[in-house]
Records
---
Amino acid sequence: MTLTFDDYQKRAIETAVYPKAGLNVVQWDGIPDFVPCGFIYPALGLAGESGECLEKFKKILRDKNGHISEEDKIAIAKELGDCFWYLAALCHELNLNMSSVAQGNLDKLASRQARGTLSGSGDNR
Ligand SMILES: [Mg+2]
């Protein structure tokens, strides 16, 4: 059975246990307000897990001259999975389906490929 992005997202969210952070703000008229910011925790987690991947690559460069072992791959795959989890949670907090995000990315790349702008910089090329 193939695991789809949306299946993964649904199952990942069933394991989500994290604080729903928010901000206490004061509006223009001085009235205090609470703004729920459920995206903060998974956004921080995604950055953290990405950093864990990079830390492994750094140590592979430092200690193994860049040679990645099967053991390294297994460890990196676990960190990539952790990234996936936080990405799923972040999509959930933003009311986005992972499949739509993935399809949108492929569409963007296909458009750039067709227009010969895969290389270069800028989000909107
Ligand atoms: Mg991790």
---
Amino acid sequence: VLDLARQLIGFDTINPPGNESAATHWIGDLLGAGFDCRYHEFAPNRASLLASLPGIGAPLAFTGHVDTVPLGAEPWSRHPFGEVDGDRLYGRGASDMKGAVAAIVAMALRHAAMPAPRTGLLLLITSGEETTCQGAAHLAETVDLRGMAGALVVGEPTSNRPVIAHKGCARYRVATHGVAAHASMPEHGVNAIHKLADIIGALRRFEFGVAPHPILGGPTLNIGTIRGGSAINIVADAAEIGVDIRLVPGQPEARVRQQLQELVGSEGRVELLEQAASVATEPDHPWVVDAVRRVSARFGESLTAGGVPYFTDASVLTAALGGVPTLILGPGEASMAHKVDEYCRISLLEQSVEIYAELARSWNPTEYLSA
Ligand SMILES: [Zn+2]
């Protein structure tokens, strides 16, 4: 798995521009003849891979993305396309999440070599995840995924701890308009920046009015960008902010948009830019209970399934597969994602192959999905 992860990190799939096709085809070639591999490009050179291994009953699905975020402006002290030092594999995507994709491939090869009868697998290796699940969304639009798997494992970084819930995301542009005038006579204009400043003040005190989720807590709001005015000597006639809201399960985006528009009133306009759904599986789902027990045994401690604030391709895939139970578990460390000198612990990488293989081996759709 270390060898696979190193090779995968060696592909430059920095998104934008992504150019993931070489990496996804390399994975498809590795999987070999036992798997039915289909490639789906959402843009030129940006293929996702849907690989299925037939077996008994509804397959168990695994997903991981092969694109990465850029290296960032700060210099790296390690090789960003792969370097091993002790228990650490360094490189962009080591934690988020080429390490997990390598573990999924290693597990799949091992599972396929098991004598029949065995359960089936569905691998969804996506492109364009870092830019709001573009590859997964394209897969969901072009392939009828409903019924293709009974449950989903997402290899996003959790240090191999089980996670069953993540927040959703909704991003808005909030814009105000005014009337331009000479800065020496501001009484002849209407200042869009002043209007926006009042809105910003109100947003900082904003209450969503939703009960906190038992695992994820409450929703959050962050104003990430601000722009306004055209020159220092003109009363600003336009201003806008970018607002990122992390939603909890059961909090519809449309309701949030309505709340924002009520807060802004006639002083501005609220526009939805993009969104990703939250995901939550019941902690007492029989498959989840069994998976948490198996992972606990490996750690030698009693774990409970947790939640993460970041969203994943499950925002799209869980619903597209028909609302399947979803487990997020991967060898990377969430604190390493998108950082300079990103690394993944090799011991966790190896452990994730064992966990994935056990989940695949013990997958029993009749037992887990009858409830
Ligand atoms: Zn990721």
